[in-house]
Write a structure and sequence with these properties.
By secondary structure, the chain is mainly α. The chain folds into 3 domains: 8-138, no CATH class; 149-232, no CATH class; 240-275, no CATH class. 44% of the residues lie in helices and 11% in strands. It contains 11 helices and 7 strands. The chain has helices spanning 8-14, 42-46, 62-66, 69-77, 82-96, 124-138, 149-164, 171-182, 186-190, 194-219, 245-251, and strands at 22-25, 31-34, 101-105, 111-115, 120-123, 242-244, 270-273. The protein has a 3-stranded antiparallel beta sheet with strand order 3-4-5. Strands 1-2 form a two-stranded antiparallel ribbon. It has a two-stranded antiparallel ribbon with strand order 6-7. A hairpin with a 5-residue loop joins strand 1 (22-25) and strand 2. The longest helix is centred in the C-terminal third of the chain and has 26 residues, at 194-219. The protein is globular.
Length: 275
């Protein structure tokens, strides 16, 4: 089965949700299993996955924009620092189980990955699709849909502002929180895929927050303002970052016409960042 044309939502239903490897048919005719990352290996993955997320187009060089991503890594990033090479090796080992993989260029300058042990060849197009599957497979909230660069910048600023007020929750503490709430042992958590672990952690947090705030909200007559822990409203990528002019005006007890818009450099539809 050729998975190149299969939708990510289909992969999620068939493979991601059940912690199964994704069988990907390479252009050389061989099939490669894309493996989910387990909690016990997540630290290595976390410190290596950045090699798949470099925005080469943001570097504003025509030659970089025209390159395939694998070509960009080989010609631009790897010569800069051996750290990038190690990150790449870690991802190839963890997610593709390739222990004898080498990256090289053919006589036409096209870069490819070849594994001597399994005798398979991954070309640049394969690598683009495999990288995308790896991200969706392991980060259940991942979304690579297009966002205007100005909006992306604004979203990063919001994330930075939100993050300043809180300590980052370590993986070790997340394990302890889940164990305290569910009784699942650390050993069992370490043997889960990171995707399933992340979903479980978010559900634990959601349940605790819902059960502790719901009664107070109901007492205050604002029960309908608290989103249900299980039955959530549909959201898009922008939710939590911007509010519309109407929403902002309502929160201030004013009319939309009273709110002065910015210069419109991000979008005239949005008036403000959410707090």
């Amino acid at each position: 089965m050729n998975l190149v044309s299969i939708d990510i939502n289909v992969l999620q239903e068939i493979y991601f949700a059940h912690d199964k490897p994704v069988p990907y048919q390479l252009r050389d005719g061989n099939t490669l299993n894309i493996l989910p990352v387990y909690v016990q290996d997540f630290a290595v993955f976390y410190h290596s996955v950045g090699i798949l997320k470099i925005d080469k187009n943001a570097l504003n060089k025509v030659e970089y924009i025209q390159m395939k991503y694998l070509q960009f890594l080989f010609e631009v990033m790897f010569p800069q620092d051996k750290f990038y090479i190690q990150q790449f090796i870690n991802i190839i080992n963890l997610c593709l189980d390739l222990k004898k993989a080498m990256i090289n260029a053919d006589e036409h300058g096209k870069v490819y990955i070849y594994d001597e042990e399994k005798q398979i060849k991954i070309d640049a197009k394969d690598f683009d699709e495999i990288s995308r599957i790896i991200m969706y497979q392991n980060f259940y909230r991942y979304d690579d849909s297009y966002v205007n660069p100005d909006v992306q910048r604004a979203m990063r600023e919001v994330d930075e502002l939100k993050g300043k007020a809180y300590e980052e929750i370590s993986l070790e503490r997340k394990e302890a929180i889940i164990t305290a709430h569910t009784g699942i042992s650390k050993k069992d958590l370490e043997e889960m895929t990171y995707r399933s672990f992340s979903i479980l952690f978010d559900e634990v947090c959601g349940e605790v927050e819902f059960t502790t705030t719901r009664e107070i909200a109901l007492f205050a007559g604002k029960g309908d303002e608290i989103e249900h822990w299980i039955y959530k409203k549909k959201k898009n990528k922008m939710d939590g970052y911007f509010v519309t002019t109407e929403q902002y005006a309502k929160s201030m007890g004013r009319k939309p016409t009273d709110i002065v818009q910015g210069d419109g450099s991000v979008s005239s539809k949005y008036a403000s960042f959410t707090k």
